[in-house]
Design a protein that fits this description.
Blueprint (H helix, E strand, L loop, with lengths): L3 H4 L2 H13 L3 H21 L5 H20 L3 H13 L7 H13 L3 H12 L14 H4 L1
Helix pairs in contact: 2-3, 2-4, 3-4, 4-5, 5-6, 6-7
């Protein structure tokens, strides 16, 4: 029986990708994450119930993917994953993605990038009239 709660469990994907990495298959691990993210985001966007039910799972998966790349010391790819996560139509407004991204930039001594991430999350940029990417007030705090 394949229920949505079982099908969209981030821990299943994370475990499969970590197993690939442990066996030296970085590309295979990346493919596990990328395939799941494409599938899950498509499902959430096409769902008549809206994106909310899967939003948290997709956000968790994006963060796990970035952390997977960090663990593999693929820092440029990790930055790319964070960029994709913040642009995700389903999970891009989740505050913990933006916070994790900014903290990663700080850890990598990319202070200006971290500042840009914080500002875009809370204020937006010159092309953004919505007041920032993170819309939930609790997340903004």
């Amino acid at each position: 029986m394949d229920t949505d709660s079982n099908k969209y469990d981030p821990n299943t994907i994370i475990s499969a990708a970590d197993a690939r990495l442990a066996s030296g298959d970085l590309d295979g691990g990346q493919l596990v994450f990328q395939s799941a993210l494409l599938d899950w985001v498509d499902h959430a966007r096409e769902s008549t119930g809206g994106v909310e039910p899967l939003q948290d799972a997709i956000a968790t998966l994006w963060l796990a993917y970035a952390h997977f790349l960090r663990k593999a010391q693929q820092y440029k790819s990790a930055f790319d994953a964070y960029e994709q996560a913040t642009s995700c139509p389903v999970a891009g407004s989740v505050g913990r993605i933006w916070l994790d991204y900014a903290r990663f930039a700080e850890e990598r001594d990319k202070k200006r990038k971290a500042q840009q991430v914080y500002l875009k999350a809370l204020v937006g940029d010159k092309d953004d009239a919505t007041g920032g990417a993170v819309t939930d007030e609790q997340d903004r705090q």
